[in-house]
Fold:
Amino acid sequence: MALLGVPLVPGAQAADATALDLRAHAGKVVVVDFWASWCKPCRQSIPWLNEMQAKYGPSGLVVIGVNVDAERPLAEKFLAQTPARFQIVYDAEGKLPKEYAVPGMPASFIFDRTGRLVEKRLGFKIASEDFASRSTISAPVIAR
Structure:
């Protein structure tokens, strides 16, 4: 599964209502994280992803959250309570989870600077989720 040069979903809308094109992130490490308002672990993973974006963003990390709620107001209510400080794409039709074969929420797909998928993660556990320090995120972000 390659990332670069392929839009996530034609017409997918970001929070700023512009179409998402991942070619804009060429040369960066990209985390594509699938989440939903009904996902209890997402209430923990979103703040953690905020931390990773703040810590590694200046070195080239880009986090993109993909919300799969059928009704956008549910996602907006969730984000009012648990703000995301990274780009959000709304996929009410569920095209992306099918394309990525997402088995559950949250699910993260980590792509290196060349656009190669280097890791898939399902679920979230605070104690074991510092995969940034284990090098999944930090090594490709720090390595230039």
Observations:
- Residues 70 and 93 are 7 Å apart (CA to CA).
- The longest strand covers residues 29-35.
